[in-house]
Amino acid sequence: MNNFDGIEEPVVVSSVGKKRKPSKDNHEREVRKRVRNSGGGKIPVIACSHSESKNFCHADKLTADDLVKNFDTLYCHTTKAEQDQAILRLITVKRVQRRRPKVAIEDAQKEREVTNEYYLLSKDHPTKVPVCKATFCAALGIGKDRVARVARYYAENAEARPERRGGARKVTENKEKKKLVMDHIQTFTCRASHYGRRGAPGRFGLMV
After folding, report:
1. Cα separation of 200 and 44, whole Å?
2. DSSP sequence for 22-39
3. Across the strands, what pairs with 93?
4. Residue 137 CB: number of other CB atoms within 10 A?
5. Residue 162: Cβ-neighbour burial (10 angstroms; 0-12, 13-18, 19+)
């Protein structure tokens, strides 16, 4: 029986870690995001009864093919940032030029800084069809709040809203710290544990 007690050896860093890395693509939240960004389960429809002869909204000029075309044009982009840019190309954001009192109580009037005009693509490209916000959202399968955020960011920054969610922003910094720790560990020596050899052969303890 060999006795390794008292023999010190240099530290050898293992190339394979024990920590199991999660599969990001299979995470439930990622699955929901892919479905949401793909337009799955959504059907483009016209949400109003406006007509060209009586309203600024010309939804009656849109055909079923036009709705499909707008829907596919949006969801051919797989990321939210790209979709926001596609939405912005169908919106005209303008500063409010004049205000008219529409309510009796002045304090109850909304002080909007910008006003938006909404358009959808038609078969007569590049002519766009002006529509109301309700039909715009229903045809693209998006919420009014998302449209408002896209338009407001553009009004304030003159560019489409970038994607700032998620992402490993400190990967480089963490790699540098990890390397410093591993380099420091390798300055020590190690010794096989008398109590750990039987149940965990190859396990060593640092000699500090």
Report:
1. 62
2. P-GGGSHHHHHHHHHHHT
3. 116
4. 19
5. exposed
For residues 134 and 119, the answer to whether their CB atoms sit within 8 Å is: no
Tell if the pTM clears 0.70, that is, is over it.
no
On whether the CB atoms of residues 204 and 192 are closer than 8 A, the answer is yes
Q: Is the backbone of residue 157 left (phi > 0), alpha (psi -120 to 50) or beta? A: alpha
Mark the ranges of the chain whose per-residue pLDDT is less than 50. 1-4
Q: Is the peptide bond before 126 cis (omega within 30 degrees of 0)?
A: yes
Q: Which two tokens stand for residue 94?
A: 């303008």
Residue 132: other Cβ atoms inside 10 A: 18
Which tokens sit at 11?
């530290």
Report whether 119 contacts 91 (CB < 8 A): yes
| DSSP assignments along 120-153, one per residue | EE-SSTT-EEEE-HHHHHHHHT--HHHHHHHHHH
Closest CA to 70 of 90, 94, 50: 90
Q: Residue 55 forms beta bridges with which residues?
A: none
- Domain positions in the chain: 41-97+112-157, 170-208
Task: Write out pLDDT tens, residues 137-152.
Answer: 999 999 999 999 999 9
Whether residue 189 contacts residue 10, with contact meaning beta carbons closer than 8 Å, is answered with yes
